[in-house]
Design a protein that fits this description.
The structure is a homodimer of 399-residue chains.
Chain A (H helix, E strand, L loop, with lengths): L3 H9 L2 H16 L5 E2 L11 H13 L2 H5 L8 H15 L8 E4 L1 H13 L5 E5 L5 H8 L3 E5 L10 H7 L4 E6 L12 H16 L5 E5 L22 E6 L12 E5 L6 H14 L7 H8 L9 H17 L3 E2 L6 E5 L5 H10 L2 E2 L1 E2 L8 E5 L4 H24 L1
Parallel strand pairs in A: 1-11, 3-4, 3-5, 5-6, 6-7
Antiparallel strand pairs in A: 2-8, 7-8, 9-10, 10-13, 12-13
Helix pairs in contact in A: 3-11, 5-11, 6-10, 8-9, 12-14
Chain lengths: 399, 399
């Protein structure tokens, strides 16, 4: 009954999701307090109280027929217009309501876009390490994921390698900054160099879509800033989700913003509308859309994540574990002291520490620590990290 | 930038959605009161007040971290368990929580299921007329839609034709009762005959999934009842949405219920979980899931739709237009008095009457009237229908 591909995916699984399920089991066995689950990018900050009030206000004041009814597949006009205005102010690009497509989170948005642009065997270039689900999304439409190699320890894309990896079949490049899993924020010069490469192909007639997957754009520290990409390249599509900034990952609300001057724009806007429908999303959930109208200007307070980041860095420093100091998102990338990052994660699990192997992000030899947890969990994990580092030293020494 | 297939879909479009957009334009030009928009299955009854209260109660009482956070891709355990209990009572089949997968409406559910089971070139059999989007859903996964011909005027499936249309590549059959677009409710004997056919193939080793798409199952009139299918065939998957019964089409909430004894059940349950994630749904919206916990026992009052149905039938009778008297859903199927149903809909549009051609449902020569509108719209449409009938008589007479 079940496809071969799906059977393979079931057995290979999502490393992240497998850890998530395992974490719940460990918590039942050892008590939640004694399990240090750094596996999932599930925000530890509750949604702002203003979000709750906005939901309630919408429910109290909107006509239920409009609130819960069908709208255009791309979303409510007023919501799209409000987001376009806000994004125009931020990016200095004149988005219109019609350039914004409301989506079932960033994952939904990316699928809508890829369905719209990928012919079978078209290629999509990503920079390792990258969010592992990109591979599935691309393969959903018969596309081929092409990896640029990771560049530790800075983990910045290499524009020369990008140029070399682009083929006549390249339809899109995905950029994700602040980055999952490294927490690295690409500097402006890095983004500009990527855009220059794409512009050079454009000058030769190849229009490549630059997908800016930016669910973490507000989660930045140490004065870092996520550079808006659209002003630098007209074939940019912003893929956004409110999962992280408003702590709403379960609510599945985000958007695509297509550059107003994107190549083939009329067809692409129509295609995204159609793709939203035919993929079975139909539209982004309506209540969540209307809530947003009241929450677009909410300040995003990342100080708790920043505190976590500092505390975790201190713990890792004390253990002598090597890592990339993150400037964004809520992930931290640690070099595995064992050659095999999966073996390292298994060893960590024996200390009730749940980490995710970098292999799942196209970067063997490293592991991801998601520090969107309580400060208490971080503090209590210090001894476990210390034991883990000692145990790894023993294992390595024994060889 | 945009795929060939998508370009074709943009130009062919969804007849229903095109009408919906056109209706909004006509309403702006002539005033909403003077446009009779029978195009979209958008419930005209507001969601019950209890739904609003449930949403507010959830927002007031649930921990926001749990309420808005990630859960298992298949949904919250408590919600799945509650639905399983309720469905078990209704169907007499012992569903467990793990048999229920929460989905982004029935459209999302169907995509999750088809992604799980269809290898390229696998076939899915449908009975015309059928919801036109099925074709897209099947083709999303490289499948081939195989139509059984419509049988006017009763529009019931012919089990003999079903048997003849099943090939070694047949993976699934879709049944939709109460039916969109005809409003016909398949009698129990008809369903039993379909199941008998599938059982005979099962006895020969071919496990065919029977997808029961039943978003309209509570919308029945004249004492008709939607027959539960699962007790008759173990490879049944119920595909449900709360869009129609609770008037929440924009909220995108529904479920798949896999028969506990379905072939390859363990793998199929896992596959649906994985498919929910890799297709970019990730999970059904969490707030909508939790709301359901408080609304599963709400009585569904269809009396307003029943009143509409009667009033519309009277109007059509008075005009001499032939139709199938519907016993379910909120659609009525009218025989086009012109040979070309698209030409008939164009003619209707000149009277500001928006109908949808049956061609889009695999049934040329008929048109769909969605009577989920206000009684006022139905009453006011009487003259327009009368003028339409006269105009068609003139056109036919002039030939």
């Amino acid at each position: 009954m079940v496809t071969r591909q799906m059977r393979q995916w079931i057995s290979s699984g999502s490393a992240i999701r497998a850890m998530f399920e395992e974490g719940k089991q460990l918590a039942r066995r050892y008590g939640a307090d004694n399990v240090y689950d750094f596996s999932l990018g599930n925000p530890s900050l509750p949604a702002p109280e203003a979000v709750r009030e906005a939901f309630c206000d919408v429910l109290r004041t909107c006509d239920p027929l409009e609130l819960h009814g069908y709208m255009s597949n791309s979303g409510y006009d007023d919501v799209r217009a409000a987001i376009a205005r806000r994004l125009s102010e931020r990016d200095g690009v004149a988005y219109r309501a019609c350039d914004v497509v409301m989506t079932v989170g960033a994952a939904g948005g990316m699928n809508v876009l890829l369905k719209s642009i990928l012919e079978p065997s078209d290629e999509v270039v990503v920079f390792a390490p990258y969010f592992g689900e990109y591979r599935r999304y691309v393969e959903n439409y018969g596309g081929i994921l092409v990896e640029c190699a990771p560049n530790p320890p800075a983990f910045l894309p290499d524009p020369k390698e990008l140029a070399a990896k682009i083929s006549p079949r390249t339809k899109a490049v995905i950029v994700n900054t602040p980055n999952n899993p490294t927490g690295v924020v690409y500097p402006r010069a890095c983004i500009a160099a990527i855009c220059d490469v794409l512009q050079s192909f454009r000058a030769r007639g190849q229009e490549i879509c630059l997908i800016s997957d930016e669910p973490y754009r507000e989660l930045v520290y140490d004065g870092a800033q996520a550079t808006p990409i659209a002003p630098l390249y007209p074939n940019t599509v912003v893929c956004y989700s409110y999962s992280k900034s408003l702590s709403l990952p379960g609510e599945r609300i985000g958007y695509l913003a297509l550059h107003p001057e994107i190549a083939d724009g009329d067809a692409l806007r129509d295609a995204c509308n159609v793709a939203t429908r035919v993929l079975g999303f139909v539209n982004a959930p309506s209540l969540q859309q209307k809530m947003l109208l009241r929450c677009l200007d909410l300040p995003i307070d990342v100080s708790a994540y920043d505190d976590n980041r500092r505390a975790l860095c201190e713990i890792l420093d004390a253990c002598g574990l090597e890592y990339v100091k993150p400037q964004g998102a809520f992930y931290l990338f640690v070099r595995s002291p064992l050659a095999d990052d999966r073996a390292f994660c298994e060893t960590a699990k024996r200390e009730n520490l749940l980490l995710v192997p970098g292999s799942g992000f196209g970067c063997a030899g490293w592991v991801r620590v998601a520090y969107c947890v309580s400060m208490r969990t971080i503090r209590r994990s210090a001894d476990a990290f210390a034991r883990l580092a000692r145990r790894c030293a023993e294992i390595s020494g024994a060889r």
